[in-house]
Amino acid sequence: MATREMTMGAAFEAMVEGREYWINDAELVEIRYCTRDRVDQFNQCGAREVSQKNTLIREIFGKVGDDVHIEKPLRVDYGCTTTLGNHVFINFNFTLLDPGFVTIGDHVFIGPNVSLYTALHPMDAGKRGRHIGTTLPVTIGNHVWIAGNVTVLPGVTIGDGAVIGAGSVVTKDIPAGMLAVGNPARVIRKAD
User: Which of 12, 13, 70, 146 is least enclosed, having the fewest CB within 10 Å?
Assistant: First the structure.
């Protein structure tokens, strides 16, 4: 599994640990700029430039397993906080707001227009105005299928073998092996 080295200044450490942090800290802004430059390069690659796209995927994300395929366009905030397992397929228009840790397991299928969010903004308008944030991790287990137009909110874990129906908004953990649908997503039956 390829690994991208993470920067660990005080703001970065507070961010990934879920403590309050200043979103516009210079170190964090620079990480976002570098990641977005790489993402822009990825999005400009031609369909047949597979080797270049694979190189950029390994430069964008913190850890990348074997046989990872991502369609364009892609949007990523930090990248270095995200782990992609083996045999991962991510379809068109994936959005990843990952100031917190994101773990995507092995044999995961992610449909088009899916968004994973780890970023939280305070309810207090004063703190929001000062650009203070916190994070909660998102964890996607092995053999998970997330259908199109799904949004996964901060702090959610989706268990191994779970399926998330199209258009769902996942606000809480989904147990392994279950099918969840709706807004908010709720378990309706076993996935098999």
Answer: 13
Burial class (CB in 10 A: 0-12, 13-18, 19+), 12: buried
Token pair of 184 as six digits: 């908010």
Strand arrangement of the beta sheet that strand 88-90 belongs to: 68-70, 88-90, 109-110, 145-146, 163-164, 178-181, 186-190
- CA 34/CA 123 separation, integer angstroms: 30
- Active centre residues (catalytic): 121
170 close to 156: Cβ distance less than 8 angstroms: yes
pLDDT for residue 192: 80
Virtual torsion, Cα 109, 140, 106, 150, nearest 10 deg: 10
* Tokens linked to 191: 């996935």
H helix or E strand, kind and range, residue 22:
strand 21-22
Query: Quick count: other Cβ atoms within 10 Å of Cβ 134?
Result: 20
What would the pLDDT profile of 128-178 be if each residue is shown by its tens digit?
999 999 999 999 999 999 999 999 999 999 999 999 999 999 999 999 999
